[in-house]
Amino acid sequence: MIRPGFHPGARFAAAALAVLLWLQAAPGEAASSNGSFEIGGSVAAELRVFPGDRSFDGQDRSTLSPSVVMAPEFVHEWDGGNERLTFIPFARVDAHDENRSHLDIREAHWLHAADSWDLTVGLGKVFWGVTESRHLVDIVNQTDAVESVDGEDKLGQPMVQLNWHTDWGSLGLFALPGFRERTFADDEARVRGSKPVRGADATYDSSSEAKHVDLAARWSHAIGDVDFALSHFHGTSREPTFSEAVRDGKDVFIPHYDQIDQSGLEVQLTKGAWLWKLETMTRSGHGDRFAAAVAGFEYTLYQVAETSADLGLLTEIHYDGRDSAAPATAANNDVFVGARLTLNNTSDTEMLVGAIIDRITQETFISVEGAHRLSDYWKAEAEVRWSANVPDNGFFAGAKNDDFVLLRAERFF
After folding, report:
1. Residues of the chain below pLDDT 50
2. What is residue 4's predicted lDDT score, i.e. its pLDDT?
3. Burial label, 351 (beta-carbon count in 10 A; 0-12, 13-18, 19+)
4. What's the order of all strands across the beta sheet hosting 250-257?
């Protein structure tokens, strides 16, 4: 029985500690005649620091916002690795955002591998794309928007995935039975935008709503120095549009998920220290059909200043031709510039600095990410998310006071 006033975060922290101690004592890998069983994953403590005041009445005033994350991994293989069961749950408890305190199953699937094909059934994660600053064609998994503002974190997607591997490339076919709605910050949270989002009131184009079965296919191949892929997706858009409404006396946004068709192309050319990258797609279902593209390069300076460090210089151009009927995007006429520093030391120290700049308004979003391994089991990370030159009607206007620094200590097993 739970005592009154015993916060769920305390229960989760106690559970995380118990799992941490169990993982510490458990063997990382066990082998037998029935195959192998591996236990891994991590537990982390995070602290977000908001130096600016809140933007709207009702938002939390706290400058410091801690959270705890637990992400264990369980893998069982047999038949020489041709059969595999994977289970990767994820849980977070956040001190100030109830919606960010959530449990998800990132992966829970069975993989069967044969000589020229493999089959995956269950909850899985799939990544498509080659560019750094925006992943236009990456559409299979839904964005876990409460985890990070960069859209890199994804929810597990129910899927049946069949891959063929031949001399003329790899072909992947996907049946996606069940749609997962995007996560949003709660009413009082920072980084929520100009109005709260009522995800529970979401609407759909499809009469099947979240039970619609989406379909996708992707063919990838490499010829010489060029890697490329063609993809198509038919189903429920992972990007919602929003309508305004009033709920419980509050002005809120209601998400709507359209039925879309999206065709995508990825190309990467490797020439010495140069990586030339392109992602482009065309989509129907959000008003008029439109096209979008991200193109650019990464040039690496090896052994900078006669050290072991490498410095990558990145530039990408964004174009997006969507109209007002499509989900809003900041990346319609922007340029991304960045640098990636890798020290190539025993601590795997690295840093990525980037800025996305609107070429018309000069609205700027700045991102800094750094990581340093403290030991075989501990890793420290830091992130900075900052906006500048934000006009009152700019894309980041609703969160322009929500710049933050994130500090993270992670224990691996």
Report:
1. 1-13, 15-17
2. 37
3. middle
4. 203-204, 250-257, 241-247
Nearest to 363 by CA among 338, 342, 393: 393
Closest by Cα among 220, 216, 293 to 262 = 216
Which of 321, 384, 380 lies closest to 355, judged by CA? 384
Q: With beta carbons less than 8 A apart as the criterion, state whether 220 and 229 touch.
A: yes
Contact of 64 with 45, CB cutoff 8 Å? no
Between CA 309 and CA 303 the distance in angstroms is 5
- Which tokens belong to 225? 């120095």
Contact 293, 265 (CB under 8 A): no
Q: Is residue 65 part of a domain?
A: yes
Name the one residue in this structure whose structure tokens are 């995508």: 264
Residue 113 lies in a domain: yes
* Per-residue pLDDT, 46: 97
Report if residue 2 sits inside a domain. no
Domain coverage including residue 181 = 8-412
* Burial tier of 37 (Cβ tally within 10 Å: 0-12, 13-18, 19+): middle
Q: What is the DSSP letter of 364?
A: E
Question: In the prediction, which pLDDT does 179 show?
Answer: 96
- Specify the pLDDT at position 137: 97
CB atoms < 10 A from the CB of 200, how many?
9
What are the Cα distances from residue 329, in Å, to 256, 305, 361, 392?
16, 40, 14, 16
* Res 224: pLDDT: 96
Domain assignment of residue 1, yes or no: no
Give residue for tokens 């069940």.
Answer: 178
| CATH code of 295's domain | 2.40.160.10
Residue 80's alpha-carbon distances to 74, 76, 151, 302, in angstroms, are 17, 11, 36, 39
Per-residue pLDDT, 29: 61
Strand partners, 183: none
3-state DSSP assignment of residue 10: helix
How many CA atoms, within 13 angstroms, populate the side-chain half-sphere of residue 359?
12
Judging by DSSP bridges, how do beta strands 117-124 and 157-166 pair with one another?
Answer: antiparallel
SS3 label, residue 56: coil
| Residue 63 · residue 42 · CB < 8 Å | no
Quote the pLDDT of residue 319: 97
Number of domains in the chain: 1
**Residue 112, token pair as written in the block:** 């069967």
**Burial of 121 per CB tally in 10 Å (0-12, 13-18, 19+):** middle
